[in-house]
Amino acid sequence: MTRWLLAGASGFLGTALRVRLAHEGNEVVRVVRREPATVTEFAWDPDRGELDGRALDGVDVVVNLAGAGVADRLWTAKRRELILSSRVNTTATLASALADRAGAGQGPVLIQASGISVYGTKPTAVPHTEDSAAALDYLAQVVVHWEAATQAAVTAGVRVVVLRTSPVLDSSGGPLRLMKLPWSLGLGAKLGDGQQWMPMISLEDYLRVVFWAATNPDAAGAYNLTLPQPATNAEFTDALASALHRPSFLAAPSVVVRTVLGELAEQLVGDIHAVPARLTREGFTFAAADVKATIARALERY
To answer: 68-72, 78-82, 172-176: which has the minimum mean pLDDT?
Structure first.
């Protein structure tokens, strides 16, 4: 039995991971900011850098998914501060705790959430790989600071795997759940001209990458979690409309999206063209490698 410690376990991805881990007979413990309610919960206060020392006892894998939502509200100055601090503080707290234990022998692997937005939203002639430079926009720099917060663990010799994750598609949560109602009513729309590259990954493949990273002793550093066969927003729109047997003739002009969503709109109408170069090179095989297969997987429980 493998013992996993999860941070950010109550969100969409954390819940899906907890369910899968339990189904496969793993032991799961979690860190919580409130008073622990069970023996599988441990207190922490990442804003103070504090973690119950017992949380890491017997743990084989630490997965950090903690962080305030990016797309659920407008980026006010206060929200921008929270988006950054909720990622950096949680990551630094876990990295420091793991570093403190690294000298006592082989400790847990840290699987650290990150974002595909690190590459920015400007069109490029070739897709970004893990070797591409980070962009200078706000969200890309959040990712830079987020990943840098793992440095204490890396320096101490902890195996750290950073997952630069695209929007994860599944009918149980995430962006696809928000799309269900309008698309079911025939109100789904292409965003802008639809020619912008749109990163995505199925929940099934996301979970498979997490398990691959946990069990592959050679996995370390940053990995792009996105389709090996990228799709544009127009291709996604057509594929989703076809899968739901709904029309796809509507379009939301870029100017309207930017007016409504402000800076956040660039994550929708901007171009994020990336491929999972390292995963492909290191032998990971996607269950859903293109947009049609990804949507089919995502809608299996629709």
So the answer is: 172-176
DSSP structure string for 216-234: -TT--EEEEES-SS--BHH
* Cβ neighbours for 1, distance < 8 A, ≥ 6 positions apart: 25, 26, 27
Q: What is the pLDDT of residues 147-158, one digit of tens each?
A: 999 999 999 999
**CATH number corresponding to 3-170+200-227+273-287:** 3.40.50.720
Q: Decide if 74 contacts 261 (C-beta within 8 A).
A: yes
**Start-to-end C-alpha separation, the chain:** 32
Interatomic CA distance for residues 19 and 29, integer angstroms:
12
pTM of the entire structure? 0.92
Q: Which positions ≥6 away from 113 have C-beta within 8 Å?
A: 8, 13, 63, 64, 65, 66, 67, 163, 165
CA 143, CA 115: separation in Å to the nearest integer?
6
Q: CA-CA-CA-CA torsion for 118, 123, 129, 130, nearest 10 degrees? A: -20
Distance of alpha carbon 162 from alpha carbon 249, whole angstroms: 38
Neighbours of 218 (CB within 10 A): 7
Q: What separation in angstroms does the CA of 192 have from each of 53, 98, 179, 228, 266?
A: 50, 45, 17, 24, 11
| Neighbour count for residue 294 (Cβ, 10 Å) | 29
The β-bridge partners of 202 are 169
pLDDT in tens, 10-48: 899 999 999 999 999 999 999 999 999 999 999 999 999
String of DSSP letters for 81-125: HHHHHHHHHHHHHHHHHHHHHHTTS---EEEEEEEGGGG-SS--S
pLDDT given for residue 259 in this prediction: 45
For residues 194 and 192, give the distance between their C-alpha atoms in angstroms, rounded to a whole number.
5
Alpha-carbon span 300 to 43, nearest angstrom: 37
